[in-house]
Amino acid sequence: MTAIALIIGLAAAFLLLTAGYLYGVKRGVAARESLRAQTTQLAREIEVLREDSLRLSDERQQSLRLTIEKALSPIVKREQLSLDLSQLKAGAGERRDLTFLLDRIAEAGNFSTVVLSDADGLPLAANAAADHPERLAVSASMMLLMSDRVSGDDQPRPLSIMIQDEANRVTLCRVFEVQGQRVTLTAVAAGDGRLSPTALDPALVKVSGMLANAA
Q1: Which of 206, 213, 208 shows the shortest CA–CA distance to 84?
Q2: With 0-12 CB in 10 A as exposed, 13-18 as middle and 19+ as buried, what is 8?
Q3: Using an 8 Å Cβ cutoff, are 125 and 116 in contact?
Q4: How far apart are CA 208 and CA 215, in angstroms?
Q5: Which residue stretches of the chain are H helix?
Q6: What is the rounded distance in angstroms from the CA atom of residue 119 to the CA atom of residue 70?
Q7: Angle at the Cα of 17 (from 12 to 21), degrees rounded to 5?
Q8: What radius of gyration do the chain's Cα atoms show?
Q9: How far is it, in rounded angstroms, from Cα 89 to Cα 122?
Q10: Which helix (H) or strand (E) is 113 found in, with range?
Q11: Strands of the sheet with 169-178, listed across from one edge
């Protein structure tokens, strides 16, 4: 009887240990599966964050690039205008060649009107599509008088004057001398940021040379 009880007790103990082991194994498997699922989910979240980070980085770079391009756009336009005007080809110096040259200046700078006039407000030449060149020549002579009064006797004379009107048009009047005579080159354009006080300077050499030849 004692032997049977002992055997039953050992069997019960074995079963108990086996059940505990199996339970532990089962819990371990479940824990590993849970850990694997958490790891997989974490890996997915990391990948999503990485993609979001790359997307945000690309967006920031694009935004920064657009901001820089926008900031540099007026400078680029002015430099392009300066280059275009410096590469203009002049004619032999006759009045029709002056008109041709002013046409090229208007085309290069997208100017609606370009007028060359003397100090008395008389137009010497204008581009073919000029709008009221006589009026602009008179306005240029008035700006010339205003610049003389501003400078006075002991101050340097202004070389250029820029005016913006209510229609957002910009008028640039550039004063220079040819054979001792003061003349003005005046251009009118939409306010697109291309004009600066020295915008017409690259064209002055050719205009001066043609005026001297035509005299």
Answers
A1: 206
A2: exposed
A3: yes
A4: 11
A5: 2-86, 95-109, 133-151, 201-214
A6: 39
A7: 145
A8: 42
A9: 25
A10: strand 113-118
A11: 123-126, 113-118, 181-190, 169-178, 160-164
- pLDDT tens for the chain, 215 residues long, are 566 666 666 555 555 556 555 555 566 566 667 777 777 887 788 888 777 777 776 777 777 777 766 665 556 555 666 666 666 665 554 555 788 889 989 988 889 999 999 999 999 999 999 989 999 999 999 988 888 887 777 778 889 999 988 888 999 999 999 888 999 999 998 866 667 888 899 888 888 888 877 65
Output the CA torsion sign for 141, 143, 149, 154. negative
What pLDDT score was predicted for residue 6?
A: 60
Under 8 Å between Cβ of 90 and 206: yes
d(CA 33, CA 58) in angstroms, rounded, equals 37
Name the 3-class secondary structure at 76: helix
Q: Rounding to the nearest 10 degrees, give the CA dihedral for residues 99, 104, 110, 116.
A: -40
Distance CA 116, CA 118 (A): 7
Q: Taking Cα atoms as reference points, which of 131, 202, 194, 135 lies closest to residue 162?
A: 194
